[in-house]
Design brief:
The protein has 431 residues and is mainly β. The longest helix has 5 residues. It is elongated and about 135 Å long. It starts with 7 loop residues before the first strand and ends in a 9-residue tail after the last strand.
Length: 431
């Protein structure tokens, strides 16, 4: 097969200038002859390097190995998933509606003393929680507490959350209902959850449960206790966001993500074919999750920009597992490489014409141990195509222009001879 790439061109213009002699004393014999000297002047000098042959736009993508080998390296990277795509904590609502009789309050015609009763409640975290949540370090959030009763006495509600701590101390709040002759009596309190920590493992289920202890103290006003009164309270947790969450997060799906890598190889050529014999496709995953998801490659293909035709990669391994980070704040890097050794048609789909490579991936996580996710956890994917200039080419026509470097007055030009001096420094034949 005959290769055809012009390396560099040298154009030399040879022209003749005609000078007529002038008669001078002692030069009669010379004056009878015509003097026609010829001058050769370089008109333009140009050179086609590998950069010119491939495409000017590709010069930023050229990599030169220590042995002098040249390769084109194209890449694109993006965050394919963030913590918010996997888990979010929905608003939580917990209620207690009880009667005074169920607490042991006895009906009396008049009550002027003081009596306390304690309620211990455990509530499951509701909403779309993933797996079994063990701890939540809140970054932001608010818990609104409310209490009400129709007792005709003053009532104090003391809330204690033994598993919700601020600076290591359990959170407590008090709502005082002072009887003023009007029922029902209501009151509220607020807990700022910013930077607090919730342990969800101390309930009977060992996960996903929040405990609260409420002590109700009745201070008599001399009015009767009828025995039919109620004692209600509620907890409403809103705008919850976490700095760190841990648990056995179980199985969940990583949403599908699609990205592209643009290949602009041989943009300057007008015809011909070229095939890369040893391309390499790398997917480099950087993981800052405390999980080890399985990545599924749904499809890998290229699309010809000119025709819109698509070519699917076949025969490659469809799954890949990412390494988990050992501690919060660290990252792991996992690389999945596709070459001619583990794919069926990688060189074919990368046959150089301007095109794009498109990959579509998703994933799942199957957890059986304690996992953790930080607020800023993410998985970043950098897709890289390496095209060593090893292969074959034929039929290339490369077209370009060069600017003349000498400005001559046409009045003095009688004739010109165009010479092309070509030196080929490429390991190929060209015509």
């Amino acid at each position: 097969m005959k290769n055809s790439i012009a390396n560099w061109f040298l154009s030399i213009l040879t022209f003749s200038l005609l000078f007529t002699s002038c008669k001078k004393a002692g030069f009669d014999k010379i004056a009878k002859q015509a003097w026609t000297p010829s001058l050769a002047i370089p008109l333009a000098i140009g050179e086609y390097s590998v950069y010119d042959v491939l495409a000017n736009a590709d010069s930023n993508f050229i990599s030169i190995a220590p042995d002098g080998g040249i390769a084109l390296v194209y890449s694109a990277d993006a965050d394919i998933i963030r913590a918010a795509n996997i888990i979010n904590i929905s608003n939580q609502n917990f209620n207690y509606n009880g009667s005074m009789a169920s607490l042991g309050v006895v009906a009396v015609p008049t009550f002027s003393g003081m009596q306390s009763y304690t309620i211990n409640q455990t509530y499951p975290m509701n909403g779309p929680a993933i797996g079994n949540l063990f701890t939540i370090d809140f970054m932001t959030g608010t818990m609104n507490l409310s209490a009400s009763t129709d007792l005709m006495h003053s009532v104090k509600y003391d809330f204690t959350f033994p598993d919700l701590t601020e600076n290591g101390v359990p959170v407590t709040r008090t709502i005082n209902l002072i009887y003023t002759g009007i029922t029902p009596q209501t009151g509220t309190a607020t807990v700022n959850l910013d930077n607090s920590i919730l342990d969800l493992t101390n309930g009977a289920g060992g996960a996903n449960e929040i405990r609260v202890d409420v002590t109700i103290t009745i201070t008599g006003t001399g009015n009767p206790i009828l025995g039919t009164e109620y004692a209600n309270f509620a907890m409403d947790m809103q705008n919850l966001d976490f700095d760190l969450i841990s648990g056995n997060l179980g199985q969940f799906t990583i949403p599908n993500v699609q990205d592209t890598i643009s290949l602009q190889l041989f943009n300057n050529t007008t015809q011909g074919s070229f095939s890369i014999s040893n391309p390499k496709l790398e997917f480099i995953f950087t993981n800052s999750f405390g999980i080890s998801p399985n990545i599924n490659f749904n499809s890998i293909k290229t699309r010809d920009i000119a025709t819109g035709n698509e070519y699917n990669l076949t025969g490659f391994p469809p799954n890949f597992s990412l390494a988990s980070i050992p501690a919060v704040g660290q990252t792991t890097v996992s690389t999945f490489t596709i070459t001619t050794q583990n794919s069926a048609n990688l060189p074919n789909i990368l046959t150089p014409t301007p095109k794009v490579l498109i990959y579509d991936i998703g994933g799942t996580n199957v957890g059986s141990n304690t996992n953790f996710i930080a607020h800023d956890s993410k998985i970043n994917l950098k897709g890289t195509i390496t095209l060593p200039l090893e292969g074959y080419a034929s039929g290339f026509l490369i077209r370009d222009t060069m600017e003349a470097t000498i400005d001559l007055d046409p009045e003095f030009i009688e004739s010109a001879l165009l010479r092309l001096n070509i030196e080929n420094g490429l390991p190929i034949e060209a015509g």
